[in-house]
């Protein structure tokens, strides 16, 4: 591709995106802007809940405006996926499910609900301490994945939420 063609594409791309109605979700006029510092996440009661809450608050703020409340329920389970010849499990999948509901705090009506499902895995072939560290790391990674799925849904639906 010639440098002239590249410049045309790079300069024309923002104009083309603006013409099609594209706007950054968290930009000055983006629909998800209304979620910034407006979502009060329920207090966590477990380590996975804390990790989920921390990631959501990192992205949206701590909810000082208290327009919406986010309730959630975390379910985790392990599944052995690799077993050695001596019948010792050497790898686990950590499966996670988070059911959530976003409420309008003025009316207490649920305005959005859903669930996020995913998994990650870890090795259990090292020492006990290494296996426990790998399990905790897998749990932290899974909570980030699930929080991102919830945030993506909230962002996608932000324009439909009551202001």
Can you summarize this structure?
This protein is an alpha+beta fold. The chain has helices at 3-19, 47-60, 128-157; strands at 39-41, 68-83, 89-104, 109-123.
Strand order of the largest sheet: 1-2-3-4
How many individual helices?
Answer: 3
User: Which series of helices and strands comes N to C?
Assistant: HEHEEEH
Round the mean pLDDT to the nearest integer and report it. 89
Q: Using the CA coordinates, give the radius of gyration.
A: 21 Å
Structure classification = alpha+beta
Per DSSP, what share of the residues sits in E-state strands of 2 or more residues?
A: 25-35%
Largest sheet at a glance? 4 strands, mixed
Q: How many extended strands? A: 4
Low-confidence stretches: none
| Shape descriptor | globular
Overview of this protein structure:
37% of the residues lie in helices and 31% in strands. It is built from 3 helices and 4 strands, in the order H-E-H-E-E-E-H. The chain has helices at 3-19, 47-60, 128-157; strands at residues 39-41, 68-83, 89-104, 109-123. Strands 1-2-3-4 form a 4-stranded mixed β-sheet, covered by helices on one side. Strand 3 (89-104) and strand 4 form a beta hairpin. Helix 2 packs across helix 3. It is globular and about 60 Å long.
Main attributes?
alpha+beta
Reconstruct the topology from this structure.
Blueprint: H1 3-19, E1 39-41, H2 47-60, E2 68-83, E3 89-104, E4 109-123, H3 128-157
Parallel strand pairs: 1-2
Antiparallel strand pairs: 2-3, 3-4
Helix pairs in contact: 2-3
């Amino acid at each position: 591709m010639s440098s002239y063609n590249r410049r045309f594409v790079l300069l024309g791309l923002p104009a083309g995106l603006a013409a099609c109605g594209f706007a950054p979700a968290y930009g000055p006029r983006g629909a998800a802007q209304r979620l910034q510092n407006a979502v009060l996440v329920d207090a966590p009661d477990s380590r996975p809940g804390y990790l989920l809450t921390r990631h959501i608050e990192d992205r949206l703020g701590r909810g000082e405006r208290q327009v919406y409340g986010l309730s959630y329920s975390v379910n985790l389970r392990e599944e052995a996926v690799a077993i050695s010849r001596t019948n010792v499990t050497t790898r686990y999948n950590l499966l996670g499910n988070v059911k959530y509901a976003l409420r309008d705090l003025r009316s207490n009506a649920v305005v959005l609900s859903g669930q996020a499902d995913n998994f990650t895995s870890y090795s259990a072939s090292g020492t006990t301490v290494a296996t426990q560290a790998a399990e905790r790391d897998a749990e932290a990674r899974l909570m980030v994945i699930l929080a991102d799925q919830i945030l993506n849904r909230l962002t996608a639906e932000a324009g439909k939420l009551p202001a």
